[in-house]
Amino acid sequence: MAYISTRDSSVRVTAAQAIAQGISAEGGLFVPEKFPTLTASDFEALKGMDYIERAQFVLRFFLDDFTEVELDYCVKGAYTNTFDENRPAPIARLGEKANVLELWHGPTCAFKDLALQLLPYLLTVSAKKTAAGKKTVILVATSGDTGKAALEGFKDVPGTEILVFYPSDGVSPMQKLQMASQKGENVHVFAIHGNFDDAQTGVKQIFTNDEIKQLLAENNMQFSSANSINWGRLAPQIVYYVSAYCDMLAENGDLSDGINVVVPTGNFGNILAAYYAKKMGVPICKLICASNANNVLTDFIRTGTYDRNRPFYTTYSPSMDILISSNLERMLFELYGNDAETVAKLQADLSMNGKYTVSNDVCAKISGLFYGGCCDDAQTLKTIDEVFEKYGYLCDTHTGVAMAVYEQYLKETGDNRPTVIASTASPYKFAKNVLSALSDDAAADEFGYVRLLHDVTATEIPSPIAALENATVRFNETCEKDGMRDVVLKSLGIE
Ligand SMILES: *Cc1c(COP(=O)(O)O)cnc(C)c1O
């Protein structure tokens, strides 16, 4: 299967190249030239498989330059004994139609584990094929969840070294502790004086600095990226939508009217994976895109104009506080029938003016495929409370946004098909805000809130979060923005 770039129609690479490289040289994103389709008998076979077998079945199409042995090594390595009960993506049913797809049973209690447990395997196999013997150096700038999930994924993976930078005052206490206590011999964690944009800019500058790249090359190393524009992070996400549909088929058989999917969205990666699953034959009718107060996507879906020139809000669902949804570029490429020239032009508009408007034709396609909705923090908390009252089911703030928009959709359309709601984090990751939806009790610190939430709801505290309370802090170094280059070289031992 060939991969092409969203911005240059002359680019064609293999899956291994797309994954090892991360992004196309001219800035475009890699997408498969053609999508495979699953037949009725494929679904019949998938129904009887476990998650690992389903992942192998689906990923085999996309990684056709991987051998069976390599694919087996990657998928089994990623999903064996890393998720609760070896079930990476179980469903909790609420009432008749709502199927909550719990994507937070991995080591960091957020959905990014599903992709970041697999990516290190895909990346090291890809690097072996495309750059034999070189050590892969992963640089990550994080606002919280991605950094920890990447650290867990890459820890002690042979042939890799990972460095994570987070803004010293820009992550939650729980997220900070998760990263500062990270285990592994190949991991490096730094706080930087500055905000997330400073961390991101610093990482980009190091990535593209010729002198540093040269130094790495002399030491038999090369940079790669673990962020969500890498195809190696998207492909694993398609699997759980296929898997959820198969679980629903196995359970109640009749899904002849199709299903809907609700996704709490930031960078547009998770919902794009659902769209790709639809393209492969999962009968998804509506893709319901749920946003918080940063509702740039809601407006885009409703009007056809993407406009990031607006206030940025810090919300209770921080992983969705995003105004530039990078993976939307892949969706535009689809909607414009693989027209790289037009996509390149729209992206240029976005970086120059902060906005673009799609054609009427594309706008019509978008409203056919998607429903866009948003809600504020107050509505999110109210929904968490109502869902808990009605079903005894506790959801986190991101999932709360999804549930609120799902209700809006039901009210507006009456379309009551069986629906998958992507649940992207454990409520215990955001214990203080989740608790405030249910109770006025207050605690002295983060773990106090974890215990209170447990007392009030009688739900289970995930073991990775419980274990944090007594974890040893290994990393407490803070560096300046312009000191990032030096700490990278020092950590790699090549200064
Ligand atoms: C990253 C994240 C999201 C947003 O996912 P995208 O793929 O960026 O749209 C939603 N919820 C949580 C908990 C996340 O960590």
General description of the model:
By secondary structure, the protein is of the alpha/beta class. The protein is built from 22 helices and 16 strands. The strands form four sheets. The chain has a six-stranded mixed beta sheet, with helices on both faces. Strand 10, helix 12 (269-279) and strand 11 form a beta-alpha-beta unit. Helix 1 packs across helix 6 (119-130), helix 3 crosses helix 11 (231-252) and helix 19 crosses helix 20 (446-457). The longest helix has 22 residues, at 231-252. The mean pLDDT is 94. Bound molecules: pyridoxal-5'-phosphate (PLP). The site of pyridoxal-5'-phosphate (PLP) has 17 residues, from helix 12.
Q: List how many beta strands DSSP finds.
A: 16
- Assembly classification: single chain
What's the helix count? 22
State the share of residues found in helices, binned by percent.
40-55%
Ligands: pyridoxal-5'-phosphate
Q: Specify the overall morphology.
A: globular
State the secondary-structure class.
alpha/beta
Biggest sheet details: 6 strands, mixed
Average pLDDT score: 94
Proportion of beta-strand residues: 15-25%
Q: Whole-number radius of gyration?
A: 22 Å
First-to-last CA distance: 40 Å
Q: Please give the order of strands in the largest beta sheet.
A: 4-5-15-10-11-14
Low-confidence stretches: none
